[in-house]
Amino acid sequence: MKSLAELAAIREKMKDKVVLREGTTNTRIVVGMATCGIAAGARPVLNAFVEGVDKEGLNDSVTVTQTGCIGICQYEPVVEIFQPGKEKVTYVKMTVEKAEKVLKEHIKGGKVVEEYTIASAKKA
Amino acid sequence: MKELSLNVLDIAQNSVKAEADLIRICIEETEESLTFSITDNGYGMTPEVLARVETPFYTTRTTRKVGLGIPLLKLAAEQTGGDVTITSRHRDAFPDSHGTKVVARFYKTHIDFTPLGDIVSTLTTLIQGSPSIDFEFSHVTPDTEVRLDTRELRQVLGEEIPLNEAEIIRWIADYLKEQYENKKI
Ligand SMILES: Nc1ncnc2c1ncn2[C@@H]1O[C@H](COP(=O)(O)OP(=O)(O)OP(=O)(O)O)[C@@H](O)[C@H]1O
Ligand SMILES: [Mg+2]
Fold this sequence. Notes:
The complex is a heterodimer of chains A (124) and B (185).
Chain A: H1 4-21, E1 27-32, H2 35-40, H3 42-55, E2 62-67, E3 79-82, E4 89-91, H4 96-108, H5 118-123
Helix pairs in contact in A: 3-4
Chain B: H1 4-17, E1 22-29, E2 33-40, H2 47-54, H3 57-63, H4 69-78, E3 83-89, E4 99-107, H5 119-129, E5 134-140, E6 145-149, H6 150-157, H7 166-181
Parallel strand pairs in B: 1-5
Antiparallel strand pairs in B: 1-2, 2-4, 3-4, 5-6
């Protein structure tokens, strides 16, 4: 059984790491979580990013946050990527599979997945 | 919404937006019904806003731009023969006891009942997005009883470890899942 004692052990293990991490993140992944986003499937997309960032060991440089309505309901789930010195990238109609690809190719590999961006969606 | 747990997430996001620092989510099930309530201590609604929110889906849609969250919840509840009740106290009139309570009742035997779905994911999503808000969760069914109170976790973790650390989120998910597997005797 999971117990609060186990949580205390995790705390001891994490204490130093969390302090070190402060101020080091540089990529922000923002997932739209308003009603339209949630209805379109934003919850699993958010979780795919949270789990993926953790699994890839990117917690020190990447944060995943949630936001309200971005105002483009027809394109939900919407995900925005902010990186210092780069233009914001907006991915639309996201799915878990697309999130995994964005994580691998864009966040890790540094190459925007053009086909999922809002610019491509508008062209189509 | 595909699952009721998504309505729970969406309605709880209203509480987050209302600047609540404590949100209670209680789900109670019998063989025939599922009732959930979401109670917050946020800034609340004035009687005018509450009245507007209470008007049915089809009228509100054409008269003015209001949100979709509560109408969608009402639709989901009413199509099973259930209902939604909202009570709220705005901080202007109730500076010391403001907040909102939304209660939604569903009949599980009705063909249009949507299952609860992944409620664990709803909770971890809420905590991940609002690590400084406290959540009190309980889900009681005829054969399970699941509880979580982030205040207890915070007590163990202390100030320096936020609840939205990946490892903590994972622990919370496992903690809840274990309780779901552990049937009452
Ligand atoms: N817990 C709450 N506390 C204070 N005000 C609330 C609360 N829940 C709802 N409201 C009020 O009711 C309105 C309608 O809520 P609803 O969820 O239907 O739509 P929304 O949140 O505005 O937009 P959407 O849910 O479509 O993203 C809100 O805009 C807000 O003014
Ligand atoms: Mg809402």
